[in-house]
Design brief:
One of its GO terms (cellular component) is cytosol. Keywords: ATP-binding, Kinase, Nucleotide-binding, Transferase. GO terms for molecular function: ATP binding; pyridoxal kinase activity. Its EC number is 2.7.1.35. The protein is an alpha/beta fold. The chain has a single domain, classed as UDP-N-acetylmuramoyl-L-alanine:D-glutamate ligase. It contains nine helices and eleven strands. The strands form two sheets. The protein has a nine-stranded mixed β-sheet with strand order 3-2-1-4-5-8-9-10-11, with helices on both faces. Strand 4, helix 3 and strand 5 form a beta-alpha-beta unit.
């Protein structure tokens, strides 16, 4: 029997609204991994589409959790960070990467902080700028187009871009330090939506597309990133993991629409998990 891989997922918990840890934990677990969590904040709901949500910053808990993990001599095959709860957490999570990574550890940073040209309400420009320091520690980063602009301190140009712009953007993002860059929300035609990737070691740029569904669906970035990591840890190439993540995200969106669910509560990824397991080629040993 092959060794079961262990992942540490460093994200917030939105008690209602499928995103962050309530997406990452079940997807990574279904993909076969022993998934530990380090919550960065607790919110009553996610921040998109809701007002009056509660917010508890868990910055003070990160170091004690890390020290306890160290006392247990825990080893991780992947460290995966998303939404951070404060500016101070950037250095704390960077330190956690240094503490727990080995030559075999995959470090992935999804710099969750903005969309549609706007920072999330609990983020500051200072925090967005600091996120580039964390990206420098990663093996792979997964920003959307808005987050890419903030990381590079460039103007967000919206949907008015060319393939040449996307490929140049990927290369500028790689200069932050990650060996692989995935850019989400890429579209060159109205009926298709997907992602682009750049592997600095090979110089290869790849694309993965599928049907574009009109509307904004909360939590799809977390679904995509968690699925991408699942593919990579199941030994798929970056190109193949990219397509699996695009396909699964679309499957979740379609189910959400077919069931007539309210979009602000996130996508129905739960019923699509059998499809994900099939796409990953998983079976009981």
């Amino acid at each position: 029997m092959n060794k079961q891989k262990r992942v540490a997922a460093i994200h917030d918990i939105s008690c209602v609204g499928r995103c962050s840890l309530t997406v990452a934990l079940p997807i990574l677990s279904a993909a076969g991994f022993d998934t530990g969590v380090l919550p960065t904040a607790i919110l009553s709901t996610h921040t998109g589409g809701f007002e009056g949500f509660t917010y508890r910053d868990l910055t003070s808990d990160i170091e004690p959790i890390s020290k306890h993990w160290q006392s247990l001599n825990l080893k991780f095959d992947a460290l995966y960070s998303g939404f951070l709860g404060s500016f101070e957490q950037i250095d704390l999570v960077a330190g956690l990467f240094d503490t727990f990574r080995s030559n075999e550890t995959l470090v992935m940073v999804d710099p969750v902080m903005a969309d549609n040209g706007i920072l999330y309400s609990v983020y500051s420009p200072e925090m967005a700028k600091g996120m580039s320091k964390l990206c420098a520690k990663a093996d792979i980063i997964v920003p959307n187009l808005t987050e890419a602009a903030f990381l590079l301190e460039e103007e967000y140009i919206g949907e008015n871009y060319s393939q040449e712009y996307i490929e140049a953007l990927l290369k500028r993002l790689s200069a932050l330090g990650a060996k692989k860059v995935v850019l989400t929300g890429v579209s060159f035609e109205k009926s298709k939506l997907g992602a682009a990737s750049f592997d600095i070691s090979t110089g290869k740029i790849s694309y993965a597309f599928n049907e574009k569904v009109d509307g904004y669906f909360h939590g799809t970035g977390d679904v995509f990133s968690s699925t991408l990591l699942s593919g990579l840890l199941n030994d798929f190439s970056l190109e193949d993991a990219l397509q699996i993540a695009v396909n699964y995200t679309l499957k979740c969106i379609r189910l959400t629409e077919n069931l007539g669910l309210e979009k602000r509560y996130g996508v129905c990824f739960e019923r699509a998990i059998p499809y994900l397991i099939q796409q990953l080629g998983l079976h009981a040993d």
